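Researcher: Quick one. two chains, 912 residues in total.
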Amino acid sequence: MTELATSAQRAVAAAQAAGAVQAEAFAARDSGREVRVHGGEVESLTAATQSGIGVRAWIGHRVGYAYGTDFSDAGVEAIAARAAASAEVADEDEFAAPPGPAEVEAIAGLSDPGLAAAGADQVAAIALTVERTALAADPRIAGVEQAVYADSAEQVAIASSTGVAGEYETSSCFAYLQALAEGDGARETGLGFGLARGPDGLDPEAIGAEGAERALAMIGAAKPSSRSCPVVFDPTVAASIAGLIAGMLSASAVQRGRSPFAGRLGEELASPALVLHDDGRDPEGAGSAPFDGEGVPRRRTALLEGGRLQAYLYDTYTANREGGASTGNAARSGYRSLPSVAASNLVLAPGELPLAGLLSEAGEGVYVTDVAGLHSGVNPVTGVFSVGASGRTISGGELAEPVREFTIAGDLVALLSAVEAAGSESRWVPFGGSVKTPPLLIGELSISGS
Amino acid sequence: MSGELIDPEVCERVLARALANGGRFAEVFAERRGGFTLAIDESRIESVQSGAEEGAGVRVIDGGTTYFAHVDGLDPADLERAADEAASALRGERRESRPLQAQAVTPLPVEHRPEAVAASRKAGLLRELDERGRAQGGEIAQFTASYAEARREVTVANSDGLLASDDRTRTRIGAQAVARRGDTVETGAETLGAHRGFELLEDDPALIAEQAARKALVLLDAGPAPSASMPVVIGGGFGGVLFHEMTGHGIEADHIQKGASVYVGKLGEQVAQPLLNAYDDGRLPGEWGSDAIDDEGAPTQKTQVIEDGRLTAYLYDHVTAEREGVASTGNGRRESFRHLPIPRMTNTYIAPGDATPEQIIADVDNGFYAVSFGGGQVDPATGDFVFGVSEGYLIEGGKVTRPCRGATLIGNCLDALAAIDAVGDDFFMKTGICGKGGQRAPVGTGQGHVRVQAMTVGGTQL
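Model:
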């Protein structure tokens, strides 16, 4: 057993000694690096290890939580005691109970040993190459606001009084840049990014080139006229939308009457072209793990298939409320957070047509490559959205002049049935969670411009 | 004056180790942070949690490069480990620090320490909010509320000889209501927060429950928002998010120095009509975005950023100020000891003008009145910003008429700033959480009613 797993066991025992009837401890240790470069030089280099432990304590059907960073005996006892004290404050909830143990199958390929082997100079070179490639792409690239490489090697251990015991390791890294292009008296920005399990999985030239290409494509952008028209979402935008949909499919939102999908299980509410799964076991997915934030095995769950709403996402608590089983979707953002229902990785199934085919189908419309204001412009309870956007017009079935400073608005549930086709080429996108998606063609959407 | 989290002698030792391989500047930032939160949902107290963390971040600056390491724990050995890690990438000669001089810092006053208040009383407060929210009408279908207290004790010491400590306590409550009539569902939210203790909640805190419920109920009668470019009147308080996005981020010196802001080269220029005056003020008593010192030990200050329509200042942290040979404006902020400081706003606001809200609205023939806001986002390099409105109304013939549901307002910084042609006298501040570079910071925003001559309203009604 690792030191982390032993600490988790110690915390469970300490919580029970402090008055908890049942207890669970989640311990995590994360070693990470971040390199930011600007103007061909390293602007900052960060290296750090952090670790902490979070304890859930149940007294009857009351549950409380506490976390901390002190792994000494006294430190763990203090955290456990605070968790038990928190439980005393909560109200009784008959469905609040820890999950029992389950058979957990390991997933190969979640950790790349090449990550630890790569030195600081080696990973700094990745960020420098990203920046250099973008700068060399075109004389109109005026600069790179920032090029960044970051990685993380994480160890997780969980233990509970009901017999849950597990641990795993993952690694991940990413690089991105924001390129600046100048032309027509204005500055435009372009994002390029890539993610992988280890530095060898990144293609810094491709990332730099993507940022440059996106920024250059926006030169001369103007406001489009207000209208209702076909829209194509590029994968970064499709991923953000998928993330919003998955949030509304959380059983927690559904059971509490705060989702537009409440009471609609089995209904035909999406286009058959839109096939959405939650997949917590895809070795390529950043959200993959053998088990979720409370030790329940991760799995694959069909959400939208055949045009119908197939399932909601559950953790143990929401499953208990319906007398069902958890879908392994208890998520934690580290040891500081109580588990809550969230998607692991979202996978949108690809369709038949390449991007050119989707544009051709759209005929006259808008290709949206970026959206802004998702946190303020989407109402997750009603599904009504209005967000800022930029991209290119589609004219005669092909990409035409760039457009910016407009909004797209509508209703997310209605949007599901307006999807006419999914593209044939998918990519992993770190927006909306961890999402693998192709571009999507939407039949009609409101555009607000001039 | 606030006590140090670590002994000055330990600080000196850590700084010496940080400069063992050279570097122009070294700093140790130590922090102890704790918090307690709980919520009420379905009239049940839940999500009760408490946290306690401590650790330190050490940075060494050499040329244009910052080397940064952070550790959990505040034992001298932990701090020395961080210093060694930060110094490990340098290859130069040892440098000496100046002797530390403790700065006199008076933390913002906290009358009633939240930790000293029984958890049951906090739970009771949320039950009061729940009852008050649900009492607003049978159409209130769901109600949730949350309570959060957070304390950050910090000590910062650097190789220029600065040694300063601060002790910060923030308290905040929030309420969210869902109203339902048939198939129509609407939501409303309200918050109350301050850099203060439990005394914040002595004066009718449950009013926010009533306000959240009222917003949701009003929207049950709402129609779609217009989709057009038109005059927009922005309400007071959190309406200040408009200025935060449209100008505040663009004048943070890191964006300026990278050429990634539309405000590059605009210092001293007329960027707004002469009626506009605006400030960033980290010293406003009790405000959400205030601190006695910033996270680099510099005293916070009141900085006028727009004077009679002219751009008068950028916002600096240590690194960006040093690069230009100017003084920090006390805007170096970091989410925690695990983050590097960057230039951030504190409390940013448009100063009150002469007009009354009624006059500002009366002059609009056909426009949009934005009252409640979700937040905003900006790309400082292009100047494109968005601003989410959760509750709005049409203005027709100088009068506020029918309510509209959610719409995003979109604009370009310089155009929209120059288009502000009226500023109201009904000034107040609200709390926000700002995200930048992956770091969250509490910020205040404020203004009275403000009118923008033309902006794109992104509704669904063409």
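Residues 235 and 424 of chain B are 9 Å apart (CA to CA).
Researcher: Thanks, that's what I needed.
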